[in-house]
Every structure is written in structure tokens, then in C-alpha cells.
TrEMBL record, chain A:
It is a peripheral membrane protein. It holds the Pfam family ABC_tran. Keywords: ATP-binding, Cell membrane, Membrane, Nucleotide-binding, Transport. PROSITE patterns: ABC_TRANSPORTER_1, ABC_TRANSPORTER_2. It is found in: Cell inner membrane. The keyword Nucleotide-binding applies. One of its GO terms (molecular function) is ATP binding. Residues 14-262, 354-608 form the ABC transporter domain. NCBIfam families: oligo_HPY, PRK10419.1, PRK11308.1. This is ABC transporter ATP-binding protein.
Automatic annotation (TrEMBL), chain B:
This is Peptide ABC transporter permease. The chain crosses the membrane at residues 133-154, 166-190, 210-231, 270-295, 315-341. Residues 133-334 form the ABC transmembrane type-1 domain. It is a multi-pass membrane protein. It is found in: Cell membrane. It comes from Jannaschia pagri. It comes from the Bacteria. InterPro entries: MetI-like (IPR000515), MetI-like_sf (IPR035906). Keywords: Cell membrane, Membrane, Transmembrane, Transmembrane helix, Transport. The lineage of its organism: Bacteria, Pseudomonadati, Pseudomonadota, Alphaproteobacteria, Rhodobacterales.
Length: 706, 348
């Protein structure tokens, strides 16, 4: 099949697009009056929280809205031709050929019962009429282009035999097979680890340059958009609220939502005591409950009754190539400092409440669990962990998937028992007491907040009942009335209205559910709370509120918080000390300042460099790790990180491959597990440098300029 | 793979032993034995006479001993009078006491003597089983492809008119038991006075010579019942696969709809119903009982009915062994086939 004739104008022109979904009850507008243009070779970011309609736009471009969805207004032009007017056959020629798409979950997007090679070869066979052999050669070429090792073997594999990062590279390869003019990336790295994400982002940028492909990059991650895009369009509740060149929007934002979004994410410079995050109040409106006038009105600080809540608010010019959907943007003082939030004093860190010494957790895995037989393998999930956590302290445990942080949480909770070593809580050793064997007090003392609030609440029990159930388990109070009273107090504590006691979990939003989870964890006055990625499933604007809530409760209750996360921005913001884990080892442990400043462990260095930061003034060193995290089933010899370490050649005698490095104690209790010499460590440069801030960004950071 | 099959075979033997023991125990319950005695000897026997008759034939020995004898791992019951063997359970009518060995159980290939047909059980089962195997073969040939086509067609566009009508048909066929559909078929297609007289209402002649006329109705009767069920399973699996993200990937790659169904969806959609299809084999034995009786086709199911109706213990046990083996073998095939369909499952 041939491609459409070259077109002089923009590759993609979306003009006043409106998309609705039709249910039995009503028409639900998902996208309203949305316009964007993508020029050849340009990358445009589409940013917004879940439910804002950004994926709907992508599917609209693909003309794949399903049975219930339909374009109800406006037009989508690709290379000057209206996609809405095309026949099914013409569309098929364009899909995968001229417009290709990369999806959020690579595993789900690849056919599990079809070899990778066949899935890739399908594209040229379909669109270019290539023969099998030609298609195979092309597939081989593209797989090499996306930097996958051993391309021949890759083509012969099934998707499940590849790691998440490799799968995403395959999806990218598939999209690039026909050298499309437009690439739509729908949250391409959300399901991946940070260091893998950094690799994918670099790949996409390189390939974009190499092939001159235009990109529509959909993400909720502002930092990622800053790294990849030329222009950005911010969406809120089905509308574009602001668009413009990336620097313009990031530094001279002209819409209150964009501003609120930036204020709610932890950038370097935010601090939980002196400059806390500002959560956006209220909730995202449901599509059929949108307010009149400005959708953001009810949550906006600058709301003015009579102007913001009446009539249709159009996009207006706010500078060259910069538009905003705000009636007041030229009246707002954008450089005004943030209304000084109540500064809170740093709380005193008390005596150690939890001590972990030489903790090991090994799993015996039959080589073939389903059918038995074969040699048994040992997965070393945790290897000689040594740390202590003090009263009122936040200890962050950082690492990518498979580093053993969740195993540690399980052992602490008593869901698993330790293989070796001790865990001392209070005066008792609890490492080998499973949760059934622990006393009620011990169970109540160490509680957990889970990652996914959507699955951890019983869907058929009211919120109040679930909290009371926890109180019953902890033997709290004498009567049901006592417990009910306490439950209502707990709801107050997590700032939920008392009326929520009688609601079902399905009636709650994600953030509210997580608050219920927190209330449940604190029901027995827990001394230690293990928070396993408590905000990673939530939207940016809600994350700040839930984080602040955790901090506030911690201040009041002097709780020890073990904050498990892969998100270094939030860790830097709220933790007192940080423990970095890699393949079951603690590679670095120290106060937040120590860990986030050189000398680093090489892994910490790479991790810091991989995190996208949504601040134009930040200069980052670019370090991309090669390959994937090795399997814990078959760890590398010597230092666990040696296979990906860029400093390895500084250590003489191949020490890194031979011995596991000893724990080195640097100044002030800073621990690093590395063979590098003191001189090398001292010579390390900081990864992140906050450069000279442009005026608006300075105002963002709470510094009054002028 | 070989190791896996070996292990599965071991488990199968164990299961077969347990199942046959249960059937053996049930058929050898006391009231049943009393009935047997009265049936075989004299229906006006007194209780004492019954006991002595059973004693004389070893029926009153402990259950496990009897089971061992039946299996052929314990020497069979013999009665001696004055140092001479006067009765051996191993001696079937027609064989002399001297020729009869002392072990004559399943393992020796001696499956007992049918009291109804006055013949060796193994011989009866071979003939009858063969007849039913033909019936099953034709049923499977009609049912499986039919059901898969119905299911895939219905499932590829969920909620469409095609889906609705095919689903109605499959629910209808599953909701009609064989004894209803069989009678209806005979009434409509095989009656001399009403409707087209295309087929024969009896399949007796099919034992010797299978023809379109005498075999269509019994095959259809069984096939239709199972077809709806498999079609429903296939449809459910297909609709699920069609909403999967990799189908969207294929669609947005520009693959045409028929190609999506055939190349991307089909294999994935067949993984779940495959187990169900294999489960249908043993389940067909049920339908076979009804249909063979209805159409007077003297196969396995008909034999089962005769054996049960006449308290023919040896024959019943023989039938149960065959059934147990059929069930277990189909399960093994289903497990192995699953591995081939689903690349995510690996057997070392």
C-alpha cells in the first residue's frame, strides 16, 4: 500500500473536536471543543489526570471509539484529509501504516499466543505487500533499531518470555515497522520502572529524530512531557485548558489548573515543613456532573461567581502560540508567591522502635512449580538487611520492582517469616512469628497502607463497618457504641465526612478509598505504619492531599512511617532517611540530604538521573542504564549492580565481579555498599542541579523575585 | 514432557483404583447380593438359603478380599468338598474346573461372566463399545466444529443481531434434553403420517451398516445438546478475547476484521473451551445411554441399561471401568492439548 501524498501543512489538525459516549441513560461528553495541531517532526504532549479525555482523543484520531463512542463535532484532519470522512478500508490503510500507536501496558497489547516475529511481520505484509522474507528482514532491522539484544531470538519468542521493558520496545518496534508519519504514545512508560522508563524515553526521542516522526505524547507525568515534547496541551475534564510551547506553559502558565498541578507535585525545593505541597481541593467532576462555565471553577482559587460559572469559556490567546481557557488569566498575578501555607515545625525524632539486624529472606522455588521435579532454586529476596527506624521518623525504602522492598514489608507484617536475622519491635523479636502468632497489640502496632486502594477494601461492606471490623480485631473498646465512636473519630482524622461511614467503597473516589485504608491502618494506634506505594495509584492532584494527610497524622501520633516507593520526588519531599535497595541488598542508607547529594552509590546516581522532573530550571545528568534488572533467581556474582554499573572499570582487579562489597560507613551515618575508592566517591558530581530559575518558576518555588 | 505424562499416568491408575472400588462396593452391597441370589437360584429362597448360597460362592467374604479377587491380585474363591475343588469362580460356564486358573481378575483379562447376555464381559464390551465409538465419532464430528463456528461467530461481535440469534439457538439446544429432542426428531422426521419421512426412527440396523438414514437422528440428538453448551463457552471466551488490548493493537495496525478473528483471536479464544470440549467426551456417555435406548442402538449405553436393570454385577463393573478410563484419558489429552494451545504454559 502506498502512503498518502505528502502534505505541506501540519501532519495532524484537530479542530474543535467533541467526542461523546452514549449510554442507555445519557450522552456522556468525553472531549469537548478540543483543538491541537501537530507539525511534521514535532512532539506534542497531552497532559492531564485520569478521566480528562486524553486517551479518548488518541482513539478519536485512530477512529476507534467503539460502539458507544462517536465524534459529535469538529474534525480530525491527517495530512489535510478528514479522517471522519474516510471509509473503513481507507482507515485500515492509514492505521499502523501512517499513524501508529504505542500503548500503556505492553504485555496486554501483544498477542500472547503469537510469536513476536509474526506480529511484527504482519505490518509490512499488510501495508507494503512485502513477502515473508522481506518482512522478516525488516522486522530484524527494526528490532535491532530498538536496541534489543539477540534480535533473532527475540523474533522467535512469545511475549511472556520478555521483560516489561523489552515488551515495550517490541511495541515501539511494531509501531515503527512502517515508518509512520504520526506516532501516538499513550502513557508508554507508566507500567515500567524508572530506569527502564529512562531508556524507553531516550529510545523514542532518538527514533523520532531518526525517522522524522511527529509524536502525540499522552501522559500524566509532567516531568516526562518536559523531557520529550516541544509543545504541550493541558487537559482538564474533557477540555484543553492551556496549550503552548513547553517552556511557555511550564514557566509562564496562564491557567489556574496548570498552576495548581505544578504546586501539587513535589519538585526539588519542596519541603514538607517549610513549603508543603498544595493539594487541589475537591474532586474531579464526573462527566455528567460538570459545573456550568469553567470546569475547574469549583476547585479554583481565583474563582469569581458570575464570571467563571456562566456561559461557554473559549480558548484565548495568551501570547504567541500560547492559549488559555480562563476568563481571568490576564488579571491574575501569576508571579505572586504561594499563599504562605502554615509552616509546621519539624518534629523530634525519638528512640528506635524497630530494629532490623542481618535480616534475610530466601524463597525456595521448585524449578517447575506446576509439575514439580527439577532442581530447587533459591530466590534471595532480602539479603542481610540492617537498619533501624525511630519514633516519628519517615524512613523511605526505594527501589525498582523486584528489589525486595515488598518482601521486606511482608516479613515485617508477619505475612512471611524471616530466613535469618532479627526484627526487634518494642522488646520482642518478631522475625519468626507469623501474623497469627502475634499478640493483638503487636498486630495493632505495625500496620500497613496498601498500594491499590481499589482492591483492598471489601466491596460489599460499608466503610464504617470495615473500620469497626479492624477495631474488633484489635480488641478496641468495650461495646459496639465505643467502637462506632472511635470509627467516627478515625474518619475525622483522615478528613472524610462522617456520613461516609454508611457508604460503600464503590461510591468513593480513589483518594477517598485510600483515606479509608489509612484510617484502618491507624485504627489500633499503630506505632509503625508500612506504606507500600500509598499514592502511586492515585492522580497527581490527589497524591499531594493523601501525602499531606499521612504527614499530618504522623506528626500528631508520632508514628514511624516506612514509606515504600519508587518515586524519588515524593521520597525526597517527605522522608527523613532513605534506604535504597537493589536486588535484595541495601545499597545506600542515609539521611535524605545525604542520599540525594554526592557521593552516591552508582545505582542511586542512575535512579536519580532517571526520574523526570517537571521543572525547566533543573539540569540533570543523563545516565541511562543498559539492560534490565537481573533476575533474583539468578543474581550476578559479586556486587548485585555490577552488570549495569558505569563506574565498574574504576575498581581494579575485577573486584566487583568477585565480592559483594562491604557496607562502608561514610560521614554522619551514611552507608554505601560499593567498592569504589574514597577518591572516586568524592569526585562524583551531583546529578540534579537546580539552575537559575526563570522568574515565574522562582515564584513557584516560593521565592519572591523582583 | 515424558515425565509429566508418566506422573499423570500414575495418578490416573490411582484414581481408577479408587473409583472402581467405590463402584465395586456399591454393586456388592448386601441387598444387591440377596437380589442376585434370588435372581440366579430361586426367587422363593429363605433368608438362610440365601446366605448359604452366597457363602458357597464367596460373596460373603470381606469387601477388600473380594475387590482384590476381582482385580486379580488375590486368588479367586474356590470351594472344596472332600479335598476336591467343586466350585471355582474362575470357571465360566463352558470351561472345566481343571482349566480354570486360580487368579482370574481384571489384570488377567478375565472381566467376569455376564448373567444377562450369558457371555464373557470383555467380549460384550468389545462389540458394544465399538458400536458406541462409531456413534461418538460422528457426534464429535458434528458437534465440535458446529459449536466452535457458532461460538466464534456469536462472540466476535458481542451484542450484534448475529450474536443474539446464535445465542438464542445455542441456549435452546442446550435447554432441550435428549429425551425431548429425540422424541421430537422421531415425530417430525421419521413418522410415516406426518412431516417428511427422511430418516429412520430406529438405529438398530446401524450396528451392521451405518447409513445417512439410520444414523442421522441419534447423532443429531446427542450433538445438539452438547453443541449449545460448547458454543456458549466459546462465545464467552471469544467476547472476552475480542475486548483484549492486543485485539485493539491488531485493529490499529490495520488488520482487517476477518483476519483479526482468524489470526489473532481464534487461538486465544480456544484455550478455555478446549477443556470443556474434552470434558464433553465422558459426558457424552450420559447422552449415549438415553439415545441408544431411545433409538434401540445396541451399544455401550444400551448395555449399561441392560446390566443395571438386571443386576448384572460383572457387566456393570466392566462398564464402569471403561467409563473411568475414558474420563481419565480425555483429561490427560485435555491437559496436554492445553499446553500446545497456550504458549505461556511450559512443561519441563
Amino acid at each position: 500500500m502506498t502512503k498518502l501524498a505528502d502534505h505541506a501543512g501540519p501532519i495532524l489538525e484537530i479542530d474543535a473536536l467533541s467526542i461523546s459516549f452514549f449510554t442507555r441513560l445519557r450522552e456522556i461528553p468525553a472531549v469537548m471543543d478540543f483543538s491541537v495541531t501537530v507539525q511534521p517532526g514535532e512532539a506534542v504532549g497531552l497532559v492531564g489526570e485520569s478521566g480528562c479525555g486524553k486517551s479518548t482523543v488518541a482513539l478519536g484520531v485512530m477512529q476507534d471509539l467503539g460502539k458507544n463512542g462517536a465524534v459529535v463535532g469538529g474534525s480530525i484532519k491527517f495530512k489535510g484529509r478528514d479522517l471522519g470522512q474516510m471509509s473503513e478500508e481507507e482507515l485500515r490503510d492509514i492505521r499502523g501504516n501512517e499513524i501508529a500507536m504505542i500503548y500503556q501496558e505492553p504485555m496486554a497489547s501483544l498477542n500472547p499466543a503469537m510469536r513476536i516475529g509474526k506480529q511484527l511481520m504482519e505490518v509490512p505484509i499488510l501495508h507494503d505487500g512485502a513477502s515473508e522474507a522481506e518482512a522478516y528482514d525488516m522486522a530484524l532491522q527494526v528490532v535491532t533499531d530498538v536496541k534489543l539484544p539477540d534480535p533473532k531470538r527475540m523474533l522467535d519468542s512469545y511475549p511472556h518470555q520478555l521483560s516489561g521493558g523489552q515488551q515495550q520496545r517490541i511495541v515501539i518496534a511494531m509501531a515503527l515497522m512502517s515508518k509512520p508519519a504520526l506516532l501516538i504514545l499513550d502513557e508508554p512508560t507508566t507500567a515500567l520502572d524508572v530506569t527502564v522508563e529512562a531508556g524507553i524515553v531516550e529510545l523514542v526521542k532518538d527514533l523520532g529524530k531518526k525517522y522524522g516522526t511527529s509524536m502525540l505524547f499522552i501522559s500524566h507525568n509532567l516531568g516526562l512531557v518536559l523531557e520529550t515534547c516541544d509543545r504541550v496541551c493541558v487537559m482538564y475534564s474533557g477540555e484543553a485548558v492551556e496549550d503552548g510551547a513547553i517552556g511557555e506553559v511550564f514557566d509562564n502558565m496562564r491557567h489556574p489548573y496548570t498552576q495548581a498541578l505544578f504546586r501539587s507535585i513535589p519538585l526539588p525545593g519542596a519541603d514538607k515543613n517549610s513549603r508543603p505541597l498544595v493539594a487541589i481541593p475537591g474532586n474531579f467532576p464526573l462527566p455528567h456532573e460538570r459545573p456550568p462555565g469553567c470546569n475547574f471553577g469549583p476547585r479554583c482559587d481565583y474563582f469569581e461567581a458570575g464570571r467563571c460559572d456562566s456561559g461557554v469559556i473559549p480558548m484565548r490567546d495568551a501570547g504567541p502560540g500560547h492559549h488559555s481557557r480562563c476568563v481571568k488569566f490576564d488579571e491574575i498575578d501569576w508571579n505572586a508567591p504561594i499563599a504562605a501555607p502554615a509552616e509546621t515545625s519539624k518534629r523530634e525524632i525519638g528512640a528506635p522502635v524497630l530494629k532490623v539486624e542481618n535480616l534475610k529472606k530466601y524463597y525456595q522455588v521448585a524449578a517447575n512449580a506446576l509439575f514439580g521435579g527439577g532442581a530447587e532454586k533459591v530466590v534471595k529476596a532480602n539479603e542481610t538487611l540492617d537498619f533501624e527506624a525511630r519514633e516519628s521518623e519517615t524512613l523511605a525504602i526505594v527501589g525498582e520492582s523486584g528489589c525486595g522492598k515488598s518482601t521486606l514489608a511482608k516479613v515485617l507484617m508477619g505475612l512471611e517469616t524471616a530466613t535469618d536475622g532479627t526484627i526487634t519491635m518494642g522488646n520482642a523479636d518478631i522475625q519468626s512469628t507469623p501474623i497469627e502468632g502475634r499478640s493483638t497489640k503487636q498486630v495493632a502496632d505495625i500496620q500497613m497502607v496498601f498500594q491499590n486502594p481499589f482492591d483492598t477494601l471489601n466491596p460489599s461492606m460499608t466503610v464504617g463497618r470495615q473500620i469497626i471490623r479492624a477495631l474488633e480485631v484489635f480488641d478496641y473498646g468495650k461495646s459496639d457504641a465505643d467502637r462506632r465512636e472511635r470509627m467516627l473519630h478515625l474518619l475525622d482524622l483522615v478528613k472524610l465526612p462522617r456520613a461516609f461511614a454508611d457508604r460503600m467503597p464503590r461510591q468513593l473516589s480513589g483518594g477517598q478509598k485510600q483515606r479509608v485504608g489509612i484510617a484502618r491502618a491507624f485504627a489500633g494506634d499503630a506505632k509503625i505504619v508500612v506504606a507500600d506505594e500509598p499514592v502511586s495509584a492515585l492522580d497527581v492532584s490527589v497524591q499531594a492531599a493523601v501525602t499531606d494527610l499521612l504527614m499530618e497524622i504522623q506528626r500528631d501520633q508520632k508514628t514511624t512511617l516506612l514509606f515504600i516507593s519508587h518515586d524519588l520526588s515524593i521520597v525526597r519531599y517527605l522522608s527523613d532517611r532513605v534506604m535504597v535497595m537493589y536486588l535484595g541488598h541495601v545499597v545506600e542508607l542515609g539521611t535524605t540530604d545525604q542520599v540525594f547529594a554526592p557521593p552516591y552509590h552508582p545505582y542511586t546516581e542512575a535512579l536519580l538521573s532517571a526520574v523526570p522532573i517537571a521543572d525547566t530550571s533543573v539540569q540533570k545528568k543523563h545516565i541511562v542504564l543498559e539492560g534490565d534488572i537481573p533476575s533474583a533467581m539468578n543474581p550476578p556474582s559479586g556486587c548485585p549492580f555490577q552488570t549495569r554499573c558505569r563506574w565498574k572499570d574504576r575498581v581494579p582487579g575485577g573486584l566487583c565481579e568477585k565480592d559483594v562489597p562491604p557496607v562502608r560507613h561514610l560521614d554522619g551515618g551514611h552507608q554505601v555498599k560499593c567498592h569504589l575508592s574514597d577518591a572516586d566517591l568524592a569526585a562524583m558530581e551531583p546529578v540534579i542541579e537546580v539552575g537559575e530559575a526563570p522568574p515565574a518558576a522562582a515564584a513557584q518555588a516560593g521565592v519572591t523575585s523582583m | 514432557m515424558a515425565l509429566f505424562i508418566l506422573r499423570r499416568l500414575g495418578v490416573m491408575v490411582l484414581t481408577a483404583l479408587c473409583l472402581t472400588f467405590i463402584v465395586f462396593a456399591l454393586t456388592n452391597l448386601e441387598p444387591n447380593l440377596e437380589k442376585l441370589a434370588k435372581n440366579q437360584a430361586n426367587s422363593r429362597m429363605t433368608d438362610e438359603q440365601v446366605i448359604s448360597w452366597l457363602d458357597a460362592r464367596g460373596y460373603n467374604d470381606p469387601m477388600l478380599v473380594k475387590y482384590g479377587r476381582w482385580l486379580g491380585v488375590v486368588p479367586h474363591f474356590t470351594r472344596e468338598e472332600g479335598g476336591e475343588v467343586v466350585f471355582s469362580r474362575c470357571a465360566n460356564p463352558g470351561t472345566s474346573l481343571e482349566d480354570a486358573g486360580s487368579y482370574c481378575g481384571i489384570l488377567q483379562g478375565s472381566w467376569g461372566w455376564s448373567t444377562v447376555f450369558q457371555n464373557d464381559v470383555l467380549e460384550i464390551l468389545a462389540v458394544r463399545g465399538n458400536a458406541t465409538a462409531w456413534l461418538m465419532l460422528f457426534v464429535m464430528m458434528v458437534m465440535v466444529p458446529g459449536a466452535l463456528v457458532l461460538g466464534v461467530l456469536a462472540g466476535m461481535r458481542e451484542g450484534s443481531k448475529l450474536d443474539r440469534s446464535l445465542s438464542t439457538i445455542s441456549i435452546g439446544t442446550t435447554a432441550t434434553p435428549e429425551y425431548v429432542s429425540g422424541v421430537l426428531f422421531i415425530a417430525v422426521f421419521a413418522s410415516a403420517t406426518f412431516g417428511p419421512n427422511w430418516f429412520k426412527g430406529t438405529a438398530t440396523s446401524a450396528i451392521d451398516d451405518i447409513t445417512f438414514a439410520n444414523f442421522t437422528l441419534p447423532v443429531l440428538t446427542i450433538a445438539l445438546y452438547g453443541m449449545g453448551y460448547i458454543a456458549r463457552m466459546t462465545r464467552a471466551s471469544m467476547t472476552e478475547v475480542m475486548t483484549a488490548q492486543y485485539i485493539r493493537t491488531a485493529r490499529l495496525k490495520g488488520v482487517s476484521f476477518p483476519q483479526i478473528v482468524l489470526k489473532h483471536a481464534l487461538r486465544n479464544a480456544l484455550i478455555a473451551p478446549f477443556t470443556v470440549i474434552m470434558l464433553q467426551f465422558p459426558w457424552l456417555l450420559n447422552g449415549v445411554v438415553i439415545v441408544e435406548t431411545l433409538f434401540n442402538y445396541k451399544g455401550f449405553g444400551w448395555t449399561l441399561v441392560q446390566a443395571a436393570g438386571n443386576n448384572d454385577i460383572d457387566l456393570l463393573l466392566g462398564v464402569s471401568i471403561i467409563s473411568v478410563v475414558v474420563v481419565l484419558v480425555t483429561q490427560l489429552i485435555s491437559d496436554i492439548g492445553y499446553v500446545f494451545l497456550n504458549p505461556r504454559i511450559r512443561i519441563a
